[in-house]
Amino acid sequence: MVKSGSSTTLRIGIMGGTFDPIHIGHLILAEEAWQQFSLDVVLFVPAGDPPHKSGRVEARGKDRLEMVKLAVNDNDHFEYSTMELDRTGPSYTIDTLRELRKLLGESAQMYLLIGTDEARNLMTWHDPYGIQELATIAVADRPNYTFESAARRLPENLASGLVRLRTPRLDISSTDIRRRVKANLSIRYLVPRAVETYILDKCLYGNS
Ligand code: ATP
Ligand code: MG
Questions:
Q1: Coil vs helix vs strand at 134
Q2: Residue 197 domain flag
Q3: Is residue 142 domain-resident?
Q4: How many domains does the chain have?
Q5: How far away, in angstroms, is 101 Cα from ligand 1 center?
Q6: Could you list the residue range(s) of the whole structural domain that residue 108 is in?
Q7: Cα–Cα distance between 177 and 154 in angstroms, integer?
Q8: 101 in a domain, yes or no?
Q9: Which end of the chain has fewer CB atoms surrounding its CB within 10 Å, N or C?
Q10: Which run of H or E residues covers position 4?
Q11: Distance 3 CA to ligand 2 centre (A)
Q12: Cα–Cα distance between 119 and 148 in angstroms, integer?
């Protein structure tokens, strides 16, 4: 895990998600954030029991974590944390940020990395203003939702603090990948090769 205590300020991106499974949309978003915000590291934090997806997560936490590990291990500024998987109860982002703040200290600069589909629903998250106090919320476009349309759905004092993260717009989702696997369609290049092999070897998502 990332450590505090270096003489310079740590700049960290936090990439939460169910990662059911992790795909190149997540990885490209994280790499772009690393570059645009001069981050030291991006931390991938697979959710345990995501409040908005209760009962709709298909792969077990153990498999989702394993796929995250396989996807990030060849990038030396990507890391992962099991903190949400280790917690019991729903995975609230505010709890994760508080835990990281405690671990990393006051000087750490935290960037919460999310897509526009999540940003537009920020008011339904637990303590959105608390989240914004702890971290800069950086938002990447997804097809269907522009940055502006997501921001318009939020109160002005929340929307004005959002930072735009420019990424190639990729129409890739875990939902579509699960559907493809079920239908025996190729997912090559949509996920890293090692993740593809893991899914097929473990017969995840109902492939046969
Ligand atoms: P699902 O279809 O199961 O919801 P997903 O592809 O949306 O999966 P999540 O794990 O829900 O993946 O997303 C984690 C984070 O990554 C969210 O903030 C989401 O907005 C963002 N994200 C996912 N896919 C993309 C993409 N193709 N482009 C930009 N952001 C993305
Ligand atoms: Mg999603």
A1: helix
A2: no
A3: yes
A4: 1
A5: 24
A6: 11-170
A7: 30
A8: yes
A9: C
A10: none
A11: 29
A12: 11
Å from CA of 88 to ligand 2 middle = 21
- CATH number of 35's domain: 3.40.50.620
- pTM for this structure? 0.95
Cα–Cα distance for residue pair 72/66, rounded to 1 Å: 10
Residue nearest to ligand 1 atom 9, measured at CA? 17
Distance from Cα 116 to the centre of ligand 1, integer Å: 9
The answer to whether residue 128 sits within a structural domain is: yes
- The whole-angstrom separation of Cα 92 and Cα 97 is 9
Name residues contacting ligand 1 (CB within 6 A).
17-20, 25-26, 29, 114-115, 117-118, 140, 142, 170, 172-175
Residue nearest to atom 2 of ligand 1 (CA): 175
- Pull the structure tokens for residue 108: 């750490």
